[in-house]
Amino acid sequence: MVIAVASQKGGVGKTTTSISLAAGLAHRGKKVLLIDIDSQANSSKVLLNDYPQLNANQSIYITIIERQPLPVRPSNIANLDIVPSHILLSDTDVKLTTAIDHREARLKTQLQIIRARYDYVIVDCPPALSWLTINAFTASDKVLVPVAPGYFELDSIVQIGKTIQEVRQYFNPAIELTGLLYTMSDPTVNAKTSLSVLRQTYTGTVLKTIIPRNTDIRDAHFHKQDIFTFAPESKSAQAYKRLLVELFNL
User: pTM to 2 decimals?
Assistant: First the structure.
């Protein structure tokens, strides 16, 4: 199964969710590949101790721009491989806009060659509905959308929903929305109201699992660890364990 973790907005826990899902599956003995297609490369920085030494040719940049095989590397977690990103990926949208040869399927073409090696593939998407995101959706079976408390989040869900529909129509008829994941929740009135509105607006689409706002996640990433290794009893770790059960029955 290939799952894209995507949101049009930044700061909603997209990369945290990508790392936590990939690490959680790997800790349960599944063979997992995380593809970092976000030019900020935050997943890569957490999961690769030697990331500062990597150049663009050792990242997904060569797959998207030069249509080369995916540069898979072992991460610092057993059973988890990663295709790292690079800051130069931020220029790819301009280059893909002028491309005429399957610009939407460059990730899918190369992923098809190796996906049988893995039980799960997680794609950490950029916080924008760009050609990089379209590449991720074209290659994926499902899309998981993290949503944080706030007034403007509903608009971003509408836009990402339209993108999924367009990708389904033109590039990948099998793609499905696996659900909306409410993240960064806290005891404030704003958070409770946002969740209520979200559930009323998208009945049956919002996942039961709620991810709390928790400093342990930030600290775990600072130490280049996943939350299950760094603070297995934390509220965030317990929440992501519930998400693994809800999504994968694990």
Answer: 0.94
